[in-house]
Amino acid sequence: MTKIILDAMGGDNAPEEIVKGAVAALQAEKELKVVLTGDEGKISAVLAGLTYDKARLEVVNCSEVITNDDVPTAAIRQKKDSSLVVALKMLKEDDDAKGFVSAGSTGAVLTGALLRVGRIRGISRPAVCPALPTAQEGKVYIIDAGANAECKPVNLCHFAIMGTAYARAFGVKEPRVGLVTNGTEDHKGDPLHQEAHELLKTLPGIRFVGNVEGRDIMSGDIDVAVCDGFSGNIALKTTEGTAAAVMKIIKKYISSSFMAKLGYALFMRPTFKKIKKVMDYNKYGGAVLLGIDKVVVKSHGSSKADSICASLLQAKEAADNNIIGSIKEMLAGVDLEAIGASES
Amino acid sequence: MTKIILDAMGGDNAPEEIVKGAVAALQAEKELKVVLTGDEGKISAVLAGLTYDKARLEVVNCSEVITNDDVPTAAIRQKKDSSLVVALKMLKEDDDAKGFVSAGSTGAVLTGALLRVGRIRGISRPAVCPALPTAQEGKVYIIDAGANAECKPVNLCHFAIMGTAYARAFGVKEPRVGLVTNGTEDHKGDPLHQEAHELLKTLPGIRFVGNVEGRDIMSGDIDVAVCDGFSGNIALKTTEGTAAAVMKIIKKYISSSFMAKLGYALFMRPTFKKIKKVMDYNKYGGAVLLGIDKVVVKSHGSSKADSICASLLQAKEAADNNIIGSIKEMLAGVDLEAIGASES
Fold first, then answer.
1. Predicted pLDDT of residue B295
2. What does the DSSP 8-state code read for residue B82?
3. Which value, in Å, is the radius of gyration of the alpha carbons in chain A?
């Protein structure tokens, strides 16, 4: 049995969709236990209409909520009885609690995880690591997708290590790691990426395939895309914007042609729905926060039940595959100082 | 009549597709004159099979070619009789020559334009500015999409000015300028973008709409996306990779469903061809190099005749709309030093 804590009050559709997502996950996975933190009255009202295994769902009442309007650091310090802070305290203190999911404010989840759970020893900068579909069958993990606007070369080495461990935990045997820069040649990029490139070349345990460009991220030719958090965030959100624009342009063209419109209505609507689902990475699972000493999954703020369900299953799988242990093991196996990667 | 010089030997499909593109452009636009630089024998062999207005096409013979394997700076200095260097010399010296198009090496075109034509006074860093389709009707101009891996805040101000002038030249009345960062809040980004944000807020003549994210680039809500050349290059190539991945995923899903396959074959094939054309920004026109004292358009290395034709028409339109004069005028109207943006 794997116990995952869920912030019932985080996100645009809390608590209703969050609670429904928990119930869906319990149905999908018999070895999952969920602890909901939040307003017990509101949570119970949603639960009242649902059928679920009561032995595997626990509610911990909290009186406060951290919103997007709160300043993260202050909110984590002051709102001690918020669903987020209570959840993170439990995550830290309860050895049985293996992971945490929230659709709340990214800043608050990141800050809270840092302050209340703490980093993995040796990792100075935890990073956000979402998965995207690729043009081939698999997925690609982007790390860092936005936790750190400013990075040092050593941080990018940590991202490569954590991304590799995470991709392995999800079944990729020897993850191919690319460094996202403005060209594939070895010398491309600014000094940060030039230095990171040299370090990654010599980093043991990493299958570094060299510099890659934005166009390679979703090609299926790499499994882990290492980025500084600034350009990684731009890359991630550009994939989102482009996919949305492409779908809109397709719809516009389809509706401008009578034949295409007919073909769409008669034959293609279900296929397009499936495609939309695949493209919309937000809706199907969350972005894991790597470098924290427990599994933390940030689900999109607009998450509905199916997304929360996916995030819970993802957190369980990461915990079951001992992702934290794997990162620690990989870190123990490399002497970053020896290859010239240091914090200073 | 507008005279545009075309490097007949640059690109993967030179000279055949380049020459055919020139002929297509002459047919499409009666007020265009094209000067081809390159191997006269090879060019004439292609021209022999084509019908065109001989009075509007001139060939200047050159004995050398600069390839992707050449080191740009050395090649520009040494290969004095190359199609690129001869073209740029003519562009600089001939007042009637209003623009230049090449599908050759980006590095060589950029270096050559800097060394042989020179910058607009006041612009320290010329920038690459391609156009992308948006989810709405229009286009968005990304500047800088890769000429400068490292930038200063003042460079980003210049990009905003040049992008605004360019969008205006192509019919956008009051171009909305966004600064691409890792979040929409004013304080987002690294120090470079934070400082650039403050400068752009006060820059006269610019309709600055604030920070935007990667997802906003193609939304149609902005006309000019200002980027440092590093993350701009990643954003541009990510749109390319994502569009390609989306189309592949769509094809995969269509072919996995009998009904969808039938619908595609019967009704939708022409629509999808049209969509592919719109999405493939490479194939339809090139990226203008702004900040050089004449119009320079870099067509994609894999350009075929239709793309060369589009690039020629684009160069003509930019020249006819006096883009260089507009940039100079805008620069004269702002005192960048006064708002704290300086080169030092």
1. 98
2. B
3. 21
> pLDDT tens digit string along A80-99?
999 999 999 999 999 999 99
Report yes or no: A315 and A297 within 8 Å, Cβ to Cβ. yes
Tokens coding B331: 């620069």
pLDDT at res. B283 = 61
For residue B332, what are its two tokens?
Answer: 């004269």
CA distance B254 to chain A (A): 7
**Tens digits of per-residue pLDDT, A2-52?**
999 999 999 999 999 999 999 999 999 999 999 999 999 999 999 999 999
CB B242 within 8 Å of CB A238: yes
The share of chain A scoring above pLDDT 90, in percent, equals 77
Q: Looking only at Cα atoms, what is the longest distance across chain A?
A: 66
Cβ-defined contact of A215 to B238 (cutoff 8 Å):
yes
Minimum Cα–Cα distance from B107: chain A residue: A183
Percent of chain B at pLDDT above 70? 98
Cα–Cα distance for residue pair B109/B311, rounded to 1 Å: 15
Q: Give the C-alpha separation, B7 to B101, whole Å.
A: 6
Mean pLDDT of B267-275: 84
Please answer yes or no on whether B241 and A188 come within 8 Å at the CB atom.
no
Own/partner contacts of A246-253, CB < 8 Å, gap of 24 or more, are: A246/B242, A246/B243, A246/B246, A246/B247, A246/B279, A247/A275, A247/A276, A247/A279, A247/B246, A248/B135, A249/B133, A249/B135, A249/B275, A249/B278, A249/B279, A250/B250, A250/B275, A253/B271, A253/B274, A253/B275, A253/B278
Q: Which residue of A has its CA nearest to B190?
A: A149
Give the dihedral sign, CA A282/A283/A284/A290. Answer: positive
Q: Report the alpha-carbon distance of residue A204 to residue A85 in Å, rounded.
A: 37
Subunit contact B231:A234, Cβ cutoff 8 A: yes
Percent of chain B with pLDDT over 90: 77
Reported pTM: 0.92
- Mean pLDDT over each residue of chain A, to the nearest integer: 93
Question: Once rounded to an integer, what is the mean pLDDT over residues B241-249?
Answer: 88
Chain B residues near residue A250 by CB distance under 8 angstroms: 250, 275
Geometric angle at alpha carbon B170, from B167 and B171, rounded to 5°: 95
Please list, residue by residue across A174-187, b when 16 or more beta carbons sit within 10 angstroms of its beta carbon and e when fewer do.
ebbbbbbbbbeeee
Structure-block tokens of residue B177: 């300028």
Which residues in chain B have Cβ-Cβ distances shorter than 8 Å to A235? 214, 234-235, 238
In this model, does residue B184 exceed pLDDT 70? yes
**Which of the residues B230, B252, B256, B279 would you substitute to probe the A interface, choosing the one with the greatest number of A C-beta atoms within 10 Å?**
B230
Among A137, A179, A240, A268, most B C-beta atoms within 10 A, so best to mutate, is A268
Q: Which of B237, B249, B268 minimises the CB distance to A215? A: B237
Which one is predicted more confidently, A127 or B186? A127
CB contact under 8 A, B233 and A214: yes
pLDDT digits 0-9 by tens, A187-211: 889 999 999 999 999 999 999 999 9
Rg (CA), chain B: 21
- Report residue B282's pLDDT band, with 50, 70 and 90 as the boundaries: low
Comparing CA positions, the residue from B86, B33, B45, B96 lying closest to residue B63 is B86
Closest chain A residue by Cα to residue B246: A243
For residue B242, the chain A residue with the least C-alpha distance is A239
